[in-house]
Every structure is written in C-alpha cells, then in structure tokens.
Amino acid sequence: MRDSGAEMAAGASYAYKASLIGSAHRFELTEEGMSWHIGGRSGLWRYGEISAIRLSFRPVSMQQHRFRADVSHASGGRIAILSTSWQTAALMAPQDNGFRNFIVALHARMAQAGSRAELTAGLGHRTYATILAFLALLAVAMTGLLVRALAIGEFAGALFIIGFAALFAWQIGGFVRRNQPRSYSFDRLPRALLP
C-alpha cells in the first residue's frame, strides 16, 4: 500500500499538446504550488491562490473519451488541462493515467495547504438547462415523427426513427449524465469525470 506522499509524487507532473502545431503544456506540482509552462509563458500558482476547479467530460470528434479540468486563479486567470494530446494530424492520444494522477495529486496538495477553492463538476447550470430544454424539444419532435410514421403505415421510417433515437441517446446520454452540475469535496472527487 502506498502512502499519501508517494501518491502525490506519482502525479507531480503532467504534459499534453493542445494542438498539433503548438508546444506542449507542462504542469508540475511543487512545494510552493502548481508550476505551469504554456507556450512562451510560465508561472507558479500557489495552492491557496487557486480559487476554483471545474471538472468536465468533453468529447470531440477525434477523441470520444476526453476529460477537462479548468483551474482558476484568484487574480482571474484560468488554465484548461486536457486528458488527451495531439500525436499526428489524425491521432489524438488519451493520457488517462497521467491526467487522473495529476488531478488527484493537485486536489491532495490543495487540501493539505488548506485551500478553500470552489470545486464544481459538469457544465454550468445555464448551459446544462439549455441542453436539457433542447433535448426535450428534440424528443417531442421525434415522438411526433414516430407517431406520424406509424399512423400512415411507414414501418421502415418508424424503425429508422427508433434506431436514430437509440443511437442519439447512447451518444448524448453519457455526455449529459456525466456533466450534470454539482459540487464536490477534496476527498470525494467525481469518478465519472476522471478517466
């Protein structure tokens, strides 16, 4: 069994490429705080100066299993940390273990420093409500099309609508379920938002 010091050391650094052309975004957890290097800029955010962390699930066409952590500073700065890295023009590689270890270690160090940061998970409340409203309208429209297809005897069309609805629910359902807005604590990170 590993002690907490070994766990913090395991995730003490993380790097990823946000784009194919740009340089790597590098992060390191030091005794003083989170050190970051993005492009030609760099800095050190003390653990007590980190005002908020938002974890979310953000799939993209090239990588359907992508997670994101938005780290905010008390001065208003914000850094996005992604769980994937560009490898080639057609390949975005997941970095699940490195991302998870770094995020867990960051939370552990912030808790140890007595941080009072706001920890939230998922999308913002307005964005989430807008998505739910859109999905409700889409469900009503699809139900209307299904009823119409069955009423006029277009069973092939009805099967197509049912298949499309099932595929859509499978693809979008995971995104909506994982990104439900909520708060969490340093000792209970949301498993659905870590790879």
Automatic annotation (TrEMBL):
The keyword Membrane applies. It comes from the Bacteria. The chain crosses the membrane at residues 128-149, 155-176. Keywords: Membrane, Transmembrane, Transmembrane helix. This is Bll5862 protein.
